[in-house]
């Protein structure tokens, strides 16, 4: 089964009520070591498979039921006791009771409840239960004639399926699909909930989702919405799992029976149960992301936002997860973020955040929702920046809980997209930079990455006042993190250096290069991760931009950096790497003759053999229009007519087949490319006789 339970699966452990025949003298307080030994000593049910047990056998069976019941009562909701019984090796004896054909219903009920409890919330417990073969035995017991045994077995299996270790259920198999459908048709509520849990766990691939859709599972789940609240919630979660990220399945679900299923889910966002309303919202969000064409009703979207904002006031899990659902709904959508703004989402979330302590899951999810609300709209950022919220964000950066620090950094990253925010007030660049730089030394990698994201954005909007950053000690921290073993830390630190380098003065550029060193710069250009290579070349692009002497960093020092760039371009790395590399060369080629010659030696190196064609021709033939444009810019700067050696460079490019390729691009579909092609050919005409062309 898939890793995590979704939808209606309930994490709480529920033990069956004791039957009327249960002895009142249960052995409460018995030591775990004694109970484990007594259970193991009870062994197989006496007389099982041999026509029944005598009086002595009944006593042994009764003792086993008492031991199982006591173990179950001790471990439910008690992680410490679960771990203790696991160390004592109690699980195999518990599961063994499920395997015996002659075991009494009372023993089976207690054993099933204990097995489910061991698997709930403790990974080692789930691993032990699975290793003992509990799933096979519990599945078989779903057909037991005693309804209490069926109930207990279904509950135990549902708990097992909440574990990421739960076994995979292959719904592409016709036999397995028939089994799932039979569980859905069961009149036993626990069995129906189990079926929904199995379905939620069986949607890892598009093929599995399509199999479930083709078998009519979504329609069957919708037909069960009229059942109890538990069944309705479980079925809602399963529908969400079946349609998630699958355009075909989501489209079929939304249009089948004239949209009956879709309308049923929409109706449930008005349900009395807060949990049902949240699950219905999550289902509609999944549908909207998978098939946007079936989710265009503005009224429904607005209602979703309003319902989720109301649910934030609910206690427990529902209130904690509602802001996260809102974040998912509005993510990357200017339209939905604007709608959220009109419903006073920023004000409501801010008020809730200020009225409650930060030490909660809900504070984390609210900060993330506020972060998303501020990602696109200036008005949202302005609304958020009250003195109280600014103070709270600064406090959150220093909070003991890493999740709070990450969420606060995320919020600051999007708020700092606005230069106005950093220009003064409580949350100015002077008050924010210090705490963020301190977080670069955080013990949590996720906090470091989040802090780097905020610094990246702040660096962009601090162009006139970058001295604040340079004097904060951030450069040395970024250089240190650029050497990290974690690729995300390398990426974000280089990205931050790139943004700091943008439009920097020659003196400050020199300071950064000395901190970074050309050796480290060359190593980062050849990093194992292409996205680090791309950002490093973008950093070099900003380094050589604007000042002719800046090119000396690249072509000087025995050409160490230039050699690294040449290697990446000749290896034809990812398009983004090639684009940034060509822009670096274009900027250098805008310089003096020495610079132009250095670039020519990268484009057309002097080889003994001329077998390998220049990568320039391949770049000009690329499907990536930006790579074609970057390459044409480089050629333009190399053959500018008023330069003394331009005609010689035109001849070399002609001989290498580069000019011929440019001529073939006169009708390039991308207008910018077409314009640069004309300019290159005009420069060639200016540099040579008509007969040469």
Q: How would you describe this structure in keywords?
A:
0% strand; mainly alpha; Armadillo; Leucine-rich Repeat Variant; 693 residues
Give a concise summary.
This is Armadillo repeat-containing protein 8. This protein has 693 residues and is mainly alpha-helical.
Assembly state of the chains shown: single chain
- CATH topology group of the domain at 517-692: Leucine-rich Repeat Variant
Number of helices: 42
CATH class of the domain at 517-692: Mainly Alpha
The main sheet comes to:
none
Judged by helices, strands and strand pairing, the structural class is: mainly alpha
User: Whole-number radius of gyration?
Assistant: 33 Å
Q: Indicate the mean pLDDT.
A: 89
- Going by CATH, the homologous superfamily of the domain at 517-692 would be Leucine-rich Repeat Variant
Low-confidence stretches: 1-12, 14-29, 45-54
Shape: elongated
- Cα(first) to Cα(last) distance is 67 Å
Provide the β-strand percentage band: under 5%
Per DSSP E runs of 2 or more residues, the count of β-strands stands at 0
- Portion in helices: 55-70%
The CATH architecture classification of the domain at 517-692 is: Alpha Horseshoe
What does this structure look like?
- The longest helix has 21 residues, at 55-75.
- It is elongated and about 105 Å long.
- The chain is mainly α.
- The chain is built from 42 helices and no strands.
- The chain is 68% helix and 0% strand.
- α10 packs parallel to α13 and α24 runs parallel beside α27 (445-461).
- Among the domains are: 63-167, Leucine-rich Repeat Variant, CATH 1.25.10.10; 517-692, Alpha Horseshoe (Leucine-rich Repeat Variant), CATH 1.25.10.
- It comes from Miscanthus lutarioriparius.
- Residues 1-34 are annotated as: Disordered.
- It holds the Pfam family Arm.
- It is found in: Cytoplasm; Nucleus.
- Keywords: Cytoplasm, Nucleus, Repeat.
């Amino acid at each position: 089964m898939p890793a995590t339970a979704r939808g209606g699966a309930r994490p709480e452990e529920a033990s069956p009520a004791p039957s009327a025949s249960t002895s009142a003298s249960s052995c409460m307080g018995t030591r775990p070591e004694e109970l484990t030994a007594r259970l193991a000593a009870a062994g197989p049910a006496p007389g099982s498979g041999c026509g029944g047990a005598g009086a002595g056998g009944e006593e042994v069976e009764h003792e086993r039921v008492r031991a199982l019941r006591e173990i179950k009562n001790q471990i439910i909701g008690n992680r410490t006791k679960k771990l203790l019984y696991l160390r004592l090796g109690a699980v195999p004896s518990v599961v063994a009771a499920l395997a015996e054909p002659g075991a009494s219903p009372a023993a089976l009920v207690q054993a099933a409840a204990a097995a489910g409890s061991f698997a709930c919330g403790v990974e080692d417990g789930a691993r032990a239960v699975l290793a003992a073969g509990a799933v096979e035995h519990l599945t078989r017991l779903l057909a037991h004639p005693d309804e209490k045994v069926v109930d207990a077995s279904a509950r135990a299996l549902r708990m097992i399926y909440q574990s990421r270790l739960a076994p995979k259920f292959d719904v592409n198999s016709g036999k397995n699909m028939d089994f799932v459908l039979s569980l859905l048709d069961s009149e036993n509520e626990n069995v129906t909930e189990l079926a929904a849990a199995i379905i939620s766990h069986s949607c890892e691939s598009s093929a599995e989702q399509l199999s479930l859709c083709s078998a009519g599972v979504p329609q069957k789940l919708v037909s069960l919405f009229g059942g109890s609240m538990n069944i309705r919630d479980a079925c809602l979660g399963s529908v969400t799992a079946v349609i998630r990220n699958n355009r075909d399945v989501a489209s079929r679900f939304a249009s089948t029976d004239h949209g009956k299923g879709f309308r049923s889910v929409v109706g449930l966002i008005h349900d009395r149960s807060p949990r049902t309303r949240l699950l219905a919202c999550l289902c509609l969000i999944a549908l909207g992301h998978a098939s946007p064409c079936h989710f265009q009703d503005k009224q429904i979207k607005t209602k979703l936002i309003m319902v989720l904002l109301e649910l934030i006031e609910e206690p427990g899990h529902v209130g904690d997860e509602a802001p996260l659902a809102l974040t998912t709904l509005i993510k990357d959508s200017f339209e939905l973020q604007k709608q959220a703004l009109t419903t006073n989402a920023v004000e409501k979330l801010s008020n809730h955040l200020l009225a409650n302590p930060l030490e909660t899951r809900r504070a984390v999810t609210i900060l993330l929702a506020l972060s998303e609300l501020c990602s696109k709209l200036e008005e949202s950022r302005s609304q958020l920046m009250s003195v109280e919220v600014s103070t709270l964000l600064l406090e959150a950066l220093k909070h003991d809980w890493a999740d709070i620090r990450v969420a606060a950094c995320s919020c600051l990253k999007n708020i700092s997209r606005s230069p106005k925010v950093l220009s003064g007030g409580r949350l100015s660049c002077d008050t924010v930079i210090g705490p963020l730089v301190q977080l670069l030394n955080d013990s949590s990698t996720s906090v470091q990455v989040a802090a780097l994201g905020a610094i990246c954005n702040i660096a962009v909007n601090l162009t006139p006042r970058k001295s604040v950053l340079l004097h904060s000690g951030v450069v040395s921290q970024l250089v240190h993190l650029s050497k990290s073993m974690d690729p995300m830390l390398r990426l974000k630190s280089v990205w931050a250096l790139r943004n700091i380098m943008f439009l920097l003065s020659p003196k400050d550029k020199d300071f950064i290069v000395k901190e970074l060193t050309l050796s480290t710069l060359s190593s980062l250009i050849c990093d194992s991760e292409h996205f680090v290579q791309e950002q490093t070349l973008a950093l070099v692009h900003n380094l050589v931009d604007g000042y002719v002497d800046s090119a000396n960093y690249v072509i000087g020092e025995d050409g160490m950096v230039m050699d690294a760039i040449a290697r990446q371009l000749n290896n034809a790395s990812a398009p983004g790497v090639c684009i940034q590399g060509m822009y670096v060369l274009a900027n250098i080629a805008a310089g003096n003759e020495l610079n132009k010659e250095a670039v020519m030696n990268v484009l057309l190196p002097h080889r003994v053999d001329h077998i390998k064609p220049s990568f320039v021709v391949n770049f000009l033939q690329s499907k990536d229009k930006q790579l074609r444009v970057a390459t044409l810019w480089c050629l333009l700067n190399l053959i500018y007519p008023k330069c003394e050696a331009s005609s010689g460079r035109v001849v070399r490019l002609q001989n290498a087949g580069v000019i011929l390729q440019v001529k073939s691009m006169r009708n390039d579909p991308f207008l910018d490319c077409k314009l640069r092609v004309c300019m290159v050919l005009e420069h060639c005409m200016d540099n040579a006789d008509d007969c040469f062309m």
